[in-house]
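RECORD TYPE: inverse folding
INPUT: structure tokens
STRUCTURE:
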């Protein structure tokens, strides 16, 4: 049986928490340091540090898809600081790992990896900066993680269907759905050239191609310029989008496209349209819902609980809505 901290916290759970937080590059303050500090003063403290290293910096996933150099440097420095504060003997592996990143150059890109309940991993090339190359689409945002969690709880919504994702960004939600929800076809889309390049690379990075199941495609889709021919060719049964309601100047084009998707469908086969948003500016979000109403589109809030799969901040207000014409 695994050792616990006296309150039912298992060592295996803590090691997984370290691993999940490390590969998704969570803020260091969110790591389970309390458990670590409680066990650094016993005879097996070196074993615990070694286990943490093996699940993070020395793990094969880190060799293949490493988090940023700066993040690894900060993480290892924090491990050393806490080990020294507890009066523990230095662990050579820890200093060796730090030496490896101290001399390494920082890069503008890094990898973030997210562990799925199945044991699979979604690894993404992302920008280190929140805004780069004139876009916010090169990083994963909270609503994308929430929508992916909702999809994992509602796999039947996607199973055997054609799914169109608007504003796919770096691809987290779509890749998670393709890996776990068995759609028949999945169409990733975006309009920014840099985002499309990164998106295509991430889709391929995760082993998804036109020859795999589900059938995959990555398309340029400008909300204001999409043609009826393009929408009919895609023929989506399900349309999803995450974190696309953030700029008042873009909301109008999004609403017009959603209206076309819903009104252009056969009444007998209405696509399911799901929009997930982090509400950062209430005025912008209210403007979005008002424009939906003006287009004759109603919405319902999907406020049921979802299982927390991915490490992310739960402080932001995230809302998932289903649209109806």
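DESIGNED SEQUENCE:
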């Amino acid at each position: 049986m695994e050792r616990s901290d006296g309150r039912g916290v298992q060592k295996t759970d803590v090691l997984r928490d370290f691993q999940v937080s490390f590969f998704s590059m969570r803020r260091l303050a969110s790591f389970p340091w309390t458990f670590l500090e409680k066990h650094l003063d016993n005879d097996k403290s070196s074993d615990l540090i070694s286990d943490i290293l093996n699940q993070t910096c020395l793990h094969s996933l880190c060799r293949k898809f490493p988090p940023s150099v700066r993040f690894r440097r900060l993480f290892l420095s924090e491990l050393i600081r806490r080990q020294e504060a507890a009066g523990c003997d230095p662990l050579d592996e820890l200093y060796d790992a730090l030496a490896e990143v101290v001399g390494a150059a920082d890069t503008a890109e890094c990898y973030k990896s997210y562990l799925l309940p199945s044991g699979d991993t979604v690894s993404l090339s992302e920008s280190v900066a929140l805004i780069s190359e004139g876009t916010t689409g090169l990083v994963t945002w909270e609503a994308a993680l929430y929508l992916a969690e909702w999809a994992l709880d509602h796999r039947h919504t996607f199973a055997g269907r054609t799914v169109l994702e608007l504003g796919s960004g770096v691809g987290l939600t779509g890749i998670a759905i393709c890996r776990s929800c068995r759609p028949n076809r999945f169409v990733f889309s975006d309009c920014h050239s840099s985002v499309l390049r990164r998106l295509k690379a991430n889709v391929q990075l995760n082993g998804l191609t036109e020859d795999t199941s589900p059938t995959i495609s990555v398309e340029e889709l400008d909300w204001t310029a999409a043609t009826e021919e393009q929408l009919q060719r895609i023929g989506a049964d399900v349309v999803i989008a995450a974190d696309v309601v953030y700029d008042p100047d873009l909301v109008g084009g999004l609403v017009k496209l959603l209206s076309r998707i819903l009104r252009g469908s056969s009444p007998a086969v209405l696509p399911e349209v799901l929009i997930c948003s982090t509400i950062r500016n209430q005025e912008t979000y209210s403007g979005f819902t008002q424009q939906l109403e003006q287009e004759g589109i109603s919405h319902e809030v999907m406020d049921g609980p979802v299982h927390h799969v991915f490490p992310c901040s739960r402080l932001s207000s995230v809302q998932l809505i289903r649209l109806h014409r």
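NOTES: Confidence is low (pLDDT under 50) at residues 1-8, 130-138.
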